[in-house]
Amino acid sequence: MHLSPDQLILWHYGPIRLNATIAYTWALMLVLSVGSKLITGTLSSGPQRGRWQNLLEIIVTGIEQQIEAVGLSRPRKYLPFLGTLFLFLAAAALCTIIPGYEPPTASLSTTAALALCVLVAVPLFGIIEQGIGSYLASYLKPTFIMLPFNIIGELSRTLALAVRLFGNMMSGSMIVAILLTITPFIFPIVMTLLGLLTGIVQAYIFSILAAVYITAATCASEPEPRRGPVPAH
Amino acid sequence: MDSSTIIAVASIVTAGITTGFGVLGPALGEGRAVSTALSSLAQQPDAAATITRTLFVGLAMIESTAIYCFVISMILIFANPFWNAVIAHAAGK
User: Fold this and answer.
1) Can you give the residue range of the structural domain that contains A149?
2) What is the reported pTM?
3) Contacts of residue B79 in chain A, CB cutoff 8 Å?
4) In chain A, what residues touch B47 (CB-CB under 8 Å)?
5) How many whole angstroms separate alpha carbon A157 and alpha carbon A65?
6) Is residue A59 situated within a structural domain?
7) Higher pLDDT pick, A46 / B31
């Protein structure tokens, strides 16, 4: 039994090792990018449109609405980053129905890399939106005593993002592996179904949390009322 | 008892205790969160979308504490660094 797909070596030649995490990550990237390239090659704006274009439009507008609901007023600006995160995580979770596949997000390396992307992207968006001085001043927000705690909070939520996703995806495959040795016929299928649900929810959570962090970094200083569809009592 | 036995016993017992107590708190917290969200949903069905989204995010945040304990116990059982050190030491002898 192995803890993560890092330990599953698919192919090795001398010192070069290709483990399951790298292989499946690249396979997912290939499927996602080639698939979108094929679909967006034949876009039409008329009333007649293909089913794949409809699918992509539903996904993109859905993500856009969710980002806007979090409180980011211009979702188009953040759609490439947050949408990519969600699509990759959701595809990684959904492909578990393919036999022999191991989700690359069940490895701490993948989730740590994704969380590091968020760690870098949040100050970047914050600086672009409100300028470097104003952004850095937000670290001193209540008082300057809070500076180390703000920095620690920034780091610890990155760790939490990585370990949460890793733990959920790893526990899904681990529970199925343990159940296969105890009750091998029906019950693992039920747990696989539960794992699909957990994977999608975790993909949603990861991207929503990234959106929430970006919201906090971009409009921390402006005390304007929120522009969401929520009525103000 | 030699050191490998002590490490094995300590790891297994600690893994069980970690998961047991680590699941206790988040279970209570999630129960409270869901019950509050359900009563809010019954009072304000119009805000269902906002409440549900916030509930899911909050549940995942609460649940992650249980997941941390699970990860710790999995590391203790399947990837124990102390156990690996003892094995490496015994193999080197």
Assistant:
1) 5-40+49-218
2) 0.82
3) 3
4) 230
5) 25
6) yes
7) B31
- Smallest CA–CA distance, residue A233 to chain B, in Å, is 11
- Considering the domain delimited by B3-92, tell me its CATH architecture: Up-down Bundle (1.20)
Q: Could you tell me what percent of chain A has a pLDDT over 90?
A: 30
Cα–Cα nearest to B53, from A28, A170, A229? A229
Q: In this complex, do B71 and A170 lie within 8 Å of one another by their Cβ atoms? A: yes
Radius of gyration over every alpha carbon of chain B, rounded to an integer in angstroms? 21
Helix (H, G, I), strand (E, B) or coil at A74: coil
Going by C-beta distance under 8 Å and a sequence separation of 6 or more, which residues neighbour residue A2? A8, B78
Residue A55 neighbours by CB distance under 10 Å: 11
Report the alpha-carbon distance of residue A204 to residue B32 in Å, rounded.
Answer: 22
**Residue A89, burial from CB neighbour count under 10 angstroms (0-12, 13-18, 19+):** buried
Contacts of B49 in chain A (CB under 8 A): 69
- Helix A187-218 to helix A108-130 angle (10° resolution) is 20
Q: Inter-chain contact A1–B78, Cβ cutoff 8 Å?
A: yes
Strand partners, A16: A13
H helix intervals, A95-186: 108-130, 132-137, 147-182
Domain count, chain A: 1
Confidence of residue A1 (pLDDT cuts 50, 70, 90): low
- Tell me the mean pLDDT in the region B25-53: 92
A121 contacts A210 by C-beta, under 8 angstroms: yes
Which H/E stretch holds residue A13? Answer: strand A9-13
ipTM of the complex: 0.70
Q: Considering only CB atoms, which chain A residues are within 8 Å of B70? A: 167, 171
pLDDT at A228 over 70: no
Q: Is residue A228 part of a domain?
A: no
A8 interfacial to chain B (CB closer than 8 Å): no
Sign, CA torsion A163/A164/A170/A171: positive
